[in-house]
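Take a minute with the sequence and fold tokens given here and flag any structure token that looks odd. Thanks in advance.
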Amino acid sequence: MESRKAILAIETGLCTVEAVIYSPDMTMIATGGVSECLKEFIKIWDAKTGKLITNLKEHTWKVNCLAWTVDGNTLIYGSWDDSIMMWNTTTWQRIHVLTGHTSSVCGIAISPNDPIIASTCWDNTARLWNLESGLPIGSPLQHSRDMICVSFSTAGKLLATSC
């Protein structure tokens, strides 16, 4: 950050890039968005060379948010198609599809201490999910407006959301 010079530029081929995240070991970069042909939503890049590693095409609409587990074994993302997908980053096989939101999933956060995922959505809810099983934890947290962002506290005991 001190030099303020770009060290890598990646032409993603996406019309819009809505989310970008480094893998925890800094070897990969995931980008999420939508392509003109509406067939490409998540691309994984080599963080050193910028070469494409894989293209995950299971979503049916734009990807809004990305999260990587601390161990780097799972990539999680939310989409305008109302779903959240979890992928094994060793095999690039889908692990779970989390369903329950009824509108665009806008935010994803992973608890630093527990196997819990939090998601926010334009359906005025935040939801908690078990990271290992992909199943919901309790009822949705209701709000009076569309929920956009989500974050766990450092200790993982508090959840902040925005609308």
